[in-house]
Amino acid sequence: MKKLRITLLLTILLSLFLFISCTSDNEPIDQAIPTVDPVTPAETIGLPIITTKASFTDELTSSPKLGGTITSDGGSPITASGIVWSTTTNPTIANSKTNDNTSVGNFTSTMTGLSPKTTYYVRAYATNSKGTSYGIERTITTIDSTIDNALALMTANIDNVQYNVMRPYLYAFTGNDVNVQNDGGAIGDPRFLWIQGDTSDNLDTLIEINLHIPNDKWTPGTYTLYEREDLSTTAECQAHLILNDGNFSMITSGTLTVTEFNLTTKRIKGTFSFTYSKSETPGDFKVTNGTFNYALDDSYFD
C-alpha cells in the first residue's frame, strides 16, 4: 500500500512538471506582436510608386491631358507608364491607355478617341517587372462638340503663361457663348455683352476672365478697358479677372478691340490686353495677347 502511494505521488509530480514545461515553451496566443514601421503595398512587393496630378489641362477640348509623377521605380526599371481611362470607375491597363514614358519623374499624357458629353474616370499608372501601380482617380466630362460649328474660344497670356483654350464656365453643359446683361434696365441704360473665358471647369484651379461690352460699343473699334464696377448705367468696357492663388485682382489699365460684330453670322471677335494689381502681392501684372471669338447666341439677338 505504501508503494502504491509513492507511485501515485510520483505520477502527480511528473504530470505537474510536464504541464509547467509545456507552458513555458509555448507563448500565449494573445501575446503582443512587436510593431514595425508601416510600408506601403508597393514597397512590399517592389511595384512602382505613382501619383496622379490634381487637374487636367486642355480640359475644354476633344483631347484633354492629365499627368502623373513616378516617385520610385520599386527597384525595377519602368517598362510603361501613362494614363488609363474608362466610363466606369477604377480603370486599368485593360482599358484605354497611353504608353509614353519609362522614366521616374513627371509626365503628361493626352486622352484621345473620346465621346462628347461623356464622363470618364482617369488615373495614372506605371508598370515594372513586378506589376502595375495606379494613382488616385480623377474624373472629366468631355465637351459637346455638336454645340456649334464654331465653339466659343478665348485665348490669353496671363503672367507669361499662355492659355490657348478658354471657354465659359460649364460650357460643355450649357452651350451658351454669351449673355446680355441689364436687359431689363431702363430705356437708355446700357446693355452689356458678357464674354467669359475659364481655363477649366475646376473651381479650385481655374483662372477666369470676364469681359463686359456695352451696346454702344457693339461695333468694330478700340475701347478703354476698366475694372468691373457698374453694369447698369456706366457705358464703358469693363472686365474682371479671377485668380487661383488667393489674390483679388484689380484692373489698372487696358484696351479691348472689337474686330467683328456681325448680326448676320451672329459672331463677335476681338482682342484685349490689360495690366492689373494683386491684393496680396506687390507689383504690376499683365494679361496680353487676349483674343475672343464667340457666337451671339443670346435670345436678345433673335
Automatic annotation (TrEMBL):
Question: Is Membrane one of the keywords UniProt gives this record?
Answer: no
Q: Which residues form the Fibronectin type-III domain?
A: 44-149
The protein's UniProt keywords, in alphabetical order, are:
Signal
The leader peptide range reads 1-26
Q: Which InterPro entries match?
A: FN3_dom
The reply on keyword Signal is yes
Name by which UniProt lists this protein: Fibronectin type-III domain-containing protein
